Amino acid sequence: MRDSLWLVGYRASGKSTVGRRLAQRLGWSFSDTDDLIAEIAGRPVGEVFEELGEAAFRRAEVRALEELRERAGDWVIATGGGVVESEENRRLLRRERVVFLDAPAEVLQDRLRRAGQGAGGRPPLTDQGVLAEVPVILARRVPWYREVATRVVDAELEVDGIVADLVDWLSTERARRKN
Length: 179
Fold this sequence. Notes:
This protein has eight helices and five strands, in the order βαβαααβαβααβα. 55% of the residues lie in helices and 12% in strands.
């Protein structure tokens, strides 16, 4: 039986960092939808987004989600922050075990500032710029993140604490399924 855990949340919420550590702790494989999109497109996601536009990027994202859902084995999958923008993606995610890494706009802005604002090489989504757009886009996406989430986790916690919490939760989930 295949097992998977999908991580959603805004840029800089910690999806890739938490995902890699969680996969290592569980002995599962790890994948990042952005990495798969770059592989499929043959170029970095920032270039796909900038050169082909957001609509083409979102279509590539749907393909990446569908491909990851079909893979055998146990997976932790970090999704791109805007994966929930597409109704088709939300429909796919509602069939999975999804964790929303929730953080306030100020925390995300600080993380983006410290990371040099690029967060995966993606351009800003509005004319406001990467930092200024965070509260606006976050307000639009949070209801969708919550809609697809099986569990919401405070992304302000330390990564190891988040991982330990998710390992415990998955253990409880597995035990519940057996009964």
